[in-house]
From TrEMBL:
<comment type="similarity">
    <text>Belongs to the glycosyl hydrolase 30 family.</text>
</comment>
<dbReference type="InterPro" id="IPR001139">
    <property type="entry name" value="Glyco_hydro_30"/>
</dbReference>
<keyword id="KW-0378">Hydrolase</keyword>
<keyword id="KW-0732">Signal</keyword>
<keyword id="KW-0746">Sphingolipid metabolism</keyword>
<feature type="domain" description="Glycosyl hydrolase family 30 TIM-barrel">
    <location>
        <begin position="91"/>
        <end position="227"/>
    </location>
</feature>
<dbReference type="InterPro" id="IPR033453">
    <property type="entry name" value="Glyco_hydro_30_TIM-barrel"/>
</dbReference>
<protein>
    <recommendedName>
        <fullName>Glucosylceramidase</fullName>
        <ecNumber>3.2.1.45</ecNumber>
    </recommendedName>
</protein>
<keyword id="KW-0443">Lipid metabolism</keyword>
<keyword id="KW-0326">Glycosidase</keyword>
<dbReference type="InterPro" id="IPR017853">
    <property type="entry name" value="GH"/>
</dbReference>
<dbReference type="Pfam" id="PF02055">
    <property type="entry name" value="Glyco_hydro_30"/>
</dbReference>
Length: 269
């Protein structure tokens, strides 16, 4: 018989309900849902590791199982794989260190913060290896803010980070990198350009767009952000890739911090 690795956490789980017929387990200083160590040498050809979380209280309970020959029927799902055909490479998995994420993490006790972060980034956790850090404010921020928002500052000399970066996002990202045994890739994007680069001059609303004369300056805005955001030479944290603008659609009635893009603006070459 193949073993079960990881026991049910029902007794340790502090249940919290949100009006549905299920619950979540509160992550605190003594408990977070976690992956249990598994001897990978047992995961040989023909075997698989099965994880289960349930309403009865199982949390990431893992079972080592074997593929079996079965008689095909209407109830049987049939999967065929061709391992000789490869497509794009998966770079990894991760999450966004938005303002709301960083502020909520910071609101926990130091011990609970450590427990939570380890469940995402440490070897005993999910081992995330990608973190997205927003460039400025987003719809997950307490306020609307961007960098270099003084009117018509064409040299971007007023470009400065905010307390959300310096007090919350950057310190927490550094802790995640420190506890990970993997190389963590960082990516970034902005939700909007400064309001004075846009038409109309608002940071909110998908009906706003980048004015033609500010294409290059907005690219400079990105370039200015990269060394400032992480102080690369001193902190040893590097951005691996960037992309332009989040949620590139055009819905005028939404009043979140955003910007509309189309094929012409993004470039069709």
């Amino acid at each position: 018989m193949l073993p079960v690795y990881g026991t049910s956490e029902a007794d340790r789980c502090v249940k919290r309900k949100y009006g549905y017929d299920s619950f979540v387990c509160v992550c605190n200083a003594t408990y977070c849902d976690e992956l249990h160590p598994f001897p990978t040498k047992l995961l040989k050809e023909g075997r698989y590791l099965h994880y289960v979380s349930s309403r009865e209280g199982k949390r990431l309970e893992s079972t080592l199982s074997e593929f079996k020959e079965v008689t095909r029927s209407e109830e049987t799902a049939l999967f065929r794989t061709n391992t000789s055909v490869r497509y794009q490479k998966v770079l990894g998995f991760g999450g966004a260190m938005s303002d709301s994420a960083a502020l909520n993490i910071a609101s926990l006790s130091r011990t609970a913060q450590e427990k939570l972060l380890r469940q995402y980034f440490a070897p005993e956790g999910a081992e995330y290896n990608i973190i997205r850090i927003p460039m400025g404010g987003t719809d997950f921020s307490r306020r609307h803010y961007i960098y270099a928002n003084d009117q018509e500052n064409l040299n971007l000399t007023n470009f400065n980070l905010t307390e959300e970066d310096l007090l919350y996002k950057i310190p927490i990202v550094k802790r995640a990198i420190h506890m990970s045994v993997r190389n963590i890739s960082l990516c970034t994007t902005s939700w909007t350009s400064p309001s004075w680069m846009k038409e109309p001059r608002n940071v909110t609303g998908f009906s706003t767009r980048l004015r033609d004369e500010f294409y290059q300056l907005y690219a400079d805005y990105y370039v200015r952000y990269l060394p400032q955001e992480m102080n690369l030479s001193q902190q040893g944290v590097y951005k691996d890739f960037v992309y332009f603008s989040e949620e590139k659609i055009f819905i005028a009635q939404y009043r979140i911090i955003s910007e509309a893009w189309n094929t012409k603006l993004r470039g069709s070459e």
